[in-house]
Amino acid sequence: MLIAASLSSLPTGNALAKAASQQALLLRELYRDERVTARKRRETLEDIRKILTDIVIARASAEDELEVPRLLTETSQIKAFF
């Protein structure tokens, strides 16, 4: 009797088709959302790489700018010995 009651609660006909249609719709939405998420992750990683590249360039430029006064100071010190 328990099995018969369980079987009678299962969807049939139109209800089953509607449930399958809803599940298919949910799966399509999930797939779309996953694609959107993956695309946004790729775009974010690309932005991060660009920012890191800019940081590396800025750091190298700053190091170069700091080296010039150091070289001038060393040159002046060397000239002072002669």
Number of helices: 2
Low-confidence stretches: none
**Number of spatially distinct domains:** 1
> Beta fraction of the residues?
under 5%
Main β-sheet: number of strands, strand sense, barrel status?
none
**Helix percent band:** over 70%
Gross morphology: rod-shaped
- Return the string of H and E elements: HH
Distance between the termini: 111 Å
Mean pLDDT over the full residue set: 88
Structural class: mainly alpha
Rg (C-alpha, Å): 34 Å
Descriptive notes:
- The structure is a single chain.
- It contains 2 helices and no strands.
- It is mainly alpha-helical and about 80 residues long.
- It has one domain (about 15-80).
Brief account:
With 82 residues, the protein is mainly alpha-helical. It has helices at 2-8, 13-81.
Please name the defining characteristics of this protein.
mainly alpha, 82 residues, 93% helix, 0% strand
